[in-house]
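Continuing from the previous page...

OK, I double-checked the sequence for DUF805 domain-containing protein against my notes and this is the correct one:
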Amino acid sequence: MTDTPWYYVLDGNRVGPVAAAEIAALISEGVLSRRTLVWQEGMDGWEPASTHFSPDAPPPLPGLADLPRAGQRRSPQPEPTTGLDGLYIHAPARGFSEAIRVCLGNYIAFSGRASRSEYWYFFLFTVLAGLVAAVLDAVLFGTGWEDEFSPLNTLTNLALLLPMLAVGWRRLHDINRSGWWIGGFWLALMGGGFLIGLMGATGGLAGAGAGAALLGIGVLVYFIVMLVFLCTRGDPGPNRFG
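Thanks. Re-ran it with the corrected sequence; updated structure tokens here:
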């Protein structure tokens, strides 16, 4: 292990620089756990302490400052739940490429949580992928925006439908809300369509128009609520979804 100073995360705050011996001592005393995130210069990112500190790590060398003396024990601290970005460590901020990789890797994963950046970067990716597919359709098949069927665009949308739905589900989990806020909308939309048909059958065009107006208002309110949910910062600690 090198002499390069280390940093660790405690209660959501970065602590350091400290010597490796101090981290080893804190782990042996139970103040830190082997899952505590640590970092030193040269590492790509924060990693669990277990990656660099073995269970039988030697005690700190005599004379190091700010180490507990013989007979003294520091009170164990709860495992940190937030990273340096202030977000829950299991729903961290993602970059564009990382969000794509994570969402495609969790293609049908509806459990767990997803941060705002993970959701919106993948949403941006789906929009860009759809635009690229539409351009290729126009070049290869001569289809335009007015055509009902564009093969590549349709296949792209179908391929990205499930991961987009899954990351939206996890995004709602991140603010401690059920993913059925998404699923319930589609059920309500189908029910609204049935209601419009029923009102049209019983009241003619006037009834159908009134039903369509009510459905439109409901859809607008829903989209506003969902936009607020999807833009809300996630819970900083564990919730009922993880």
